[in-house]
Amino acid sequence: MVEKYRDFTFKILMIFPLFACLLLIDSWILPQNKINDTIISYSERTISSRKKFSSRKSSYMTCYKFFTKKGYEFSTEKRFVDENDVIIQYSYIFKNITSVKSQKEDYTNKLVSGLNGLNLLLFQCLVLTSIISMMILHLSINGFYNIILSNSFLLFILLYFWGFSN
Fold first, then answer.
1. CA-to-CA distance for 49 and 52, rounded, in angstroms?
2. DSSP 28
3. Which DSSP string do the residues of 3-24 spell out, in sequence order?
4. What is the dihedral of CA 32, 80, 118, 9, to 10 degrees?
5. What pLDDT score was predicted for residue 88?
6. d(Cα 38, Cα 86) in Å, to the nearest integer?
7. What are the distances in angstroms from CA 150 to CA 36, 60, 110, 147, 155?
8. Which phi and psi (to 5°) does residue 75 adopt?
9. Which distant-in-sequence residues (6+ apart) come within 8 Å of 123 by Cβ?
10. Which is it for the CA torsion 46, 47, 50, 52, positive or negative?
């Protein structure tokens, strides 16, 4: 079974480093677009939980999600953007928001939407594990299953947090 699916698995694992290269080119080499925009609405993202022996729910706020007049969306980690007029900087290919600034403050370090914050860290882990997996793909059947499951688990966690913050 390992021999049957080794080439297919190698091709699937190749997607993540190639996509990472494309993201790096988009974020660092190609010029960034800047626009002036106005925030028209926002929402609070909260997580509700119930303790094991508690009868009431507790909730806490994780981030603010902002919507702009020109159709852009971004989230900041527990930091409210005080002004409505902002300058948004985004990447050329994927339209990933890389910077948000107002007249008074820079909110770039607090961005969590797109490929920022935890999503960037999880994507880097996924790329690193896929590269390591491609180098040791000739393992036994148990090692082959571990490679598939570890990369699938990281991909699932990344997609979950990406969906939550976006």
1. 10
2. I
3. HHHHHHHHHHHHHHHHHHHHHH
4. -60
5. 96
6. 6
7. 42, 30, 29, 5, 9
8. -125, 140
9. 20, 23, 115, 158
10. negative
Residues 6 or more apart in contact with residue 92 via CB below 8 angstroms: 26, 30, 31, 32, 33
The list of the chain residues with pLDDT below 50 reads none
Three-state secondary-structure class, residue 77:
coil
pLDDT at 162: 84
Nearest alpha-carbon partner for 120 in 25, 20, 26 = 20
Q: Are 13 and 133 in contact (CB under 8 A)?
A: yes
Q: Output the six-digit token pair for 112.
A: 């969590």
State pLDDT tens for residues 78-125: 889 989 999 999 999 988 899 999 999 999 999 888 888 788 888 999
Q: What is the pTM of this model?
A: 0.78
Distance of CA 68 to the CA centre of its chain: 20
First to last CA, the chain: 38
Q: What's the pLDDT score for residue 67?
A: 95
